[in-house]
């Protein structure tokens, strides 16, 4: 696994949250995905509309949910968008400088969700064929007594 991909999620924090939330973890993870898609769409729309105020709440929501699950790089970008938008609301200007971060936000969110899926869904980790003559290393003990 490349360092860049490894750094997208703090797996120690992710597993700690998973243990603390117990059976509710999968539900929280599904909320993260649903809310994240909505938040990113709202942020992108606010940028298109040049509506600085509309950037704040979805960025704040994404930041908090990302931190809860150990997705610190995603939370950091969302926090930058939120803080910059708050400052720009006070100074009555639009934060054009956030365009690269808003673009990166969707890419990073999609990568994060993909990694969460691989970590929580045994079917995703078994979906790729191992290839001819190779023994699959994933889920070796699944379903065995």
Q: In words, what does this structure look like?
A:
The protein is mostly helical. It has one domain (3-120): Four Helix Bundle (Hemerythrin (Met), subunit A). It has seven helices and no strands. Helix 3 (25-49) runs antiparallel to helix 6 and helix 5 packs antiparallel against helix 6 (99-120). It starts with a helix and ends in an 18-residue tail after the last helix. Residues 126-145 have low confidence and may be disordered.
Task: Tell me how many strands there are.
Answer: 0
Identify the CATH architecture.
Answer: Up-down Bundle
Order of helices and strands: HHHHHHH
Structural domains: how many: 1
Please state the CA-atom Rg, rounded to the nearest Å: 18 Å
**What about the largest sheet?**
none
Provide the CATH topology.
Four Helix Bundle (Hemerythrin (Met), subunit A)
Q: Spans of 5+ residues with little confidence (pLDDT < 50)?
A: 126-145
| Tally of alpha and pi helices | 7
**Which percent range describes the beta-strand content?**
under 5%
SS-based structural class?
mainly alpha
CATH superfamily: HPT domain
- In the CATH scheme, the class would be Mainly Alpha
Gross morphology is elongated
């Amino acid at each position: 696994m490349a360092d860049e991909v490894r750094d997208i999620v703090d797996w120690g924090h992710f597993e700690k949250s998973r243990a603390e939330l117990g059976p509710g973890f999968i539900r929280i993870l599904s909320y993260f995905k649903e809310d994240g898609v909505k938040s990113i769409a709202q942020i992108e729309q606010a940028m298109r509309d040049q509506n600085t105020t509309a950037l704040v709440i979805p960025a704040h929501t994404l930041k908090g949910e990302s931190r809860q699950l150990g997705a610190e790089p995603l939370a950091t970008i969302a926090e930058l968008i939120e803080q910059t938008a708050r400052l720009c609301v006070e100074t009555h200007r639009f934060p054009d400088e956030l365009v690269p971060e808003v673009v990166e936000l969707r890419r990073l969110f999609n990568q994060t969700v993909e990694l969460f899926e691989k970590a929580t869904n045994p079917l995703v980790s078994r979906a790729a064929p191992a290839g001819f003559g190779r023994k699959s290393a994933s889920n070796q003990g699944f379903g065995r007594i």
